[in-house]
Amino acid sequence: MKKISFKLAFYFLLVTVLIESILFISLYTTIVHSRVQEELDALLARGNSHRDVLQKHFDDTTISHVALMESEAETKVIITDANRNILAQSKNINKEMKIHLHTDLSAVPSTGMVLDDHWRSSDYICSISPIISNEEVQGYVYMFLETESIKALVEKITFKFTITALLTVCVSICTAFFFSRIITKPLVRMKKATEKLSNGDFTVVLQTTSNDELGELAASIQKLANDLHYMRQERSEFLASVAHELRTPLTFVKGYADIAKRSHISDDERTEYLSIIKEEVEHLTRLIQDLFTLAQMEQHTLTIEKEHVHLYDYLEKITAKLKPTLASKNMHIHIHCSSLLTASLDKVRFEQVLLNLLLNAYKYSNTDASISIILTQHHGQTVWRIEDQGVGIPEQDLPHLYDKFYRVDKSRTRSTGGTGLGLSIVKEIVELHGGTISIESQLHVGTTVTIALPTN
To answer: Taking the complete model, does pTM exceed 0.70, yes or no?
Structure first.
């Protein structure tokens, strides 16, 4: 994570410095240009001010007065006639300054102009203001300012900008690394969490207080850890249940097979023991078949092939198969279904659903009880209700009925205990049909299973 922290800080700093550089250069150029332009405008304005006075009184006294005023100022002045002969000048006028007297003045406007603004390469900047009287040029006022003052001003601005830029870069560096650590810190925690998950440790706890993408990622990893933890527990319980379910009938088969091999037992006893062995083998066969069905569901290879079914005839055939079994308890199944009702479903798979539910109702009902199958259709759905008069299911067990190998009857007797997979398979088949299943029960009153399937 140090690499990503460094990368984030580096890229953040690079972008920040790039933006700051553009802004600093733009601001620096604007300020310098503005300050230099102010000096140029001030020099021209000063020359125009002298020109305005001289236009009113263009005589030796006024000329000398103007030159005297500039003799103690930072600026210098040269006053010439129309032919650019010097009439007066302030002190410290050198030859370089007098060179400007020979500049072409054909383009000089009446408002004056800057003759030389090359402050970086020249020693002076210069402006000219024509003295016009009666619409004729009487002379010119040349103003000079040493560029050293401008250069000093620019150096001062440059120094301040350099200090500010360095401080800004330092702050940007600190900020970049600070925020990169803030961003990468949860990533480091998530990396450690995923390493724990890869090592089989699912006891991962991640804080998910933030509402951004990192918070969503942390929540996803936490959910993954919880799901894996649950799946590992479920797998352990599943394997333990499978081992138990296989061990019990195999123990019976082995035990009774050893007894049946004894030579001194009677034929009736041997027949009884072989019948028990046959029952346990059938139990194993059902368990293996249920496990195979569950495996198909887990791999999404269990397919549903729907066809058009007349529901009353379909139920008559299924209940007919159960009549011998129900007769042992003198139980009856009552079908409440219109002979005109039809629906689209997988006949084989849904028969598995109905047989499972009806056999459950049989196992947990008393003698002379009855089972009702009620079918209705409305709003594009076929609703199946299977009601029994059995012992009922405790309320605390209802949420767990679809768990694999879960039994309300914890005694696991061979007479009442199935494989514990039936309702899990029932739920999967119903959902593959696009339907829903719900179970309501009341102790010592009975249980009602409601299945809602799309009609088509």
So the answer is: no
